[in-house]
Specification:
The protein is built from 8 helices and 7 strands. The chain is of the alpha/beta class.
Length: 231
């Protein structure tokens, strides 16, 4: 079989998201489902509100985002923190994020493998967060990012993650839309998969986080915790 014709499997994250970012529909569509700037701004403000309520946003913080995409959240968050680091598997996503964050001097980007944060040193950041990313990962890779967040956080550092909640009506609708729309062998590798409250609770606990919390709101389950150690 010609390697170029081989279907991309779900776990080939770098290939999947680089191709999508370069596609005719554009990176923003695949990241958020829409490309309206007003809607993008509104969802960015919503995410900042959730981060303030959970892990907090402090002027001296170094924030790292897993799966920064085109910089939707980063361009709004960077002015409120010491440094914002955007990590993404796709060089094309990073290129577009650089353009959207022009003029922000406390922003930098790291291209990652899709499975870890290997270029980022241990104990080097204050907050790690990932939003609207777990849905595109297999469960094993979601958990590995929890472990990687724990590794790169300073003692006392904070972690936030979220995903669509399969127990919510909205999450179930998303689940059913993928199940009924695509035959099993033809599901696109970026198809969204839900999480649950027990999953997020378990990942945070098994990764070693303390002061753990898991909450829900329409569509979403989200969790946050702290790496043990002195602040």
């Amino acid at each position: 079989m010609n390697p170029e014709s081989t279907p991309t499997v779900r776990s080939h994250y770098k290939k999947t998201w680089q191709n999508l970012a370069l596609g005719s529909e554009g990176a923003v569509i695949y990241v958020s489902g829409y490309d309206d700037e007003d809607q993008l701004h509104a969802t960015m403000e919503d995410t900042l509100g959730i981060l303030r309520q959970t892990v907090g946003i402090r002027p001296d913080d170094v924030f790292l985002e897993i799966g920064c995409g085109v910089g939707r959240v980063g361009r709004g968050l960077a002015p409120f923190v010491r440094e914002w680091i955007g990590c993404d598997v796709s060089s094309e996503m990073i290129r577009q994020a650089r353009r959207k964050t022009l003029g922000l001097e406390n922003v930098r980007f790291v291209e990652v493998s899709g499975y870890d944060l290997q270029p980022v040193p241990d104990n080097s950041v204050d907050v790690v967060y990932t939003t609207v990313v777990f849905m595109h990962l297999d469960e094993w890779d979601r958990y590995n990012y929890c472990l990687e967040a724990f590794r790169v956080l300073k003692p006392g550092g904070r972690f936030y993650c979220d995903n669509a909640n399969i127990a919510s009506d909205e999450g179930w609708e998303m689940f059913e839309s993928v199940r009924t729309r695509f035959p099993s062998a033809e599901r696109p590798p970026q198809s969204s998969k839900c999480s649950s409250v027990p999953e997020i609770e378990t990942f945070l606990r098994r990764a070693g986080f303390v002061d753990r919390h898991v909450a829900t709101r329409p569509m979403w389950v989200y969790g946050w915790g702290t790496k043990p150690g002195a602040l």
